[in-house]
Sequence to fold (358 residues):
Amino acid sequence: MKLFVKDIAEMINARVSGNCLQAITGVSSFDNATASDITFAGDASFVSRLNQTRAGAVIVPFDCDMDTDRQHLCLLKVQNPRKAFFELVLFFHPVQNQEPGISSLAVIGSNCTLGDGVTVAPHVVIQDNVVLGDKVHIMPHVFIGNGCVLGKNCVIKPNVTLMENSCLGQGVIVHSGTVIGSDGYGFVQDEGTHFKLSHTGHVTIGDHVEIGACNTIDRGTLGVTRIGSGVKTDNQVHIAHNVTIGDNTLVVAQVGIAGSTTVGKQVIIAGKAGISGHLTIGDNVIIGPYAGVSSSVSDNQIVSGIPHMPHKTWLKVVNIISRLPGMRKTLISLEKRLNLLESIIENRSSHDSPNRHH
Fold:
């Protein structure tokens, strides 16, 4: 496939600086691109290296005013270079659509409703009273429990488990190995024995959510575990029973959120952060990597560290930690010197005391 830069500019609504007739045959990363490729420079660190790429064309921000010494390098200026570039990726590498249909090797229970254009692959098990919206795509070895509802255009990747009464909105993508609607970690202790609590709730997921691989999202103990619209989770995320996550929140890999915590809208939770149960995390909060959040966080805060604290404070703490051994050594030395001085002063005082009486 070959496109000229002028054609690409029309597709992504870009302003061109350079040769509009430059031929482009593919997309590539910034450092691996060749003269027939287009790439993108999404931030200042890449924009400053424009002369280093071998690409024939680069998508850059509108405010990029850097001159290049590459005679044949063409710049396409847009509002959001990353978004524009990945629109082109889909053009050069379109998704291979599978013909809809129900495999004869799938098992489908009674009273199920399947919309138009549904695809159900081999070795899928769908229990009773399930509703699949139009153009839902269920890949091999998926289990869908009784009473689940999936909105139109959902894509469920191989080896996903949706336990009973899970409800997914429109355009939800669930990646392989994820379990939605598992029992939460609920036990009551009596006479030294842990007795399991029955979990009768379910999971509700909004529209255009993407759930990463190997996530575990527990059903509510009695009520609902709720994931808002536009939420994106990375791989290996755990969301416990009765958690609520607000719209358009990002949850990065290996995050754990304990039961009955409410996370607001537009929150970013960085990798390996842990959030205790029964807390409230406000809107627009950013939680740093490895953070241990042990109390509620109000709107618009940036927190890091264990236990969590304002991010600027944590940066100072981190800077001090590496110096603690030296500071301890200095403190011990100062303590010894102080004790020696106090001893000298006491000795002088004891020697001077009789002279004052005479």
About this structure: DSSP finds five helices and 40 strands in the chain. The mean pLDDT is 93. The chain has three domains: 3-92, 102-314, 326-353. Residues 136 and 153 are 5 Å apart (CA to CA).
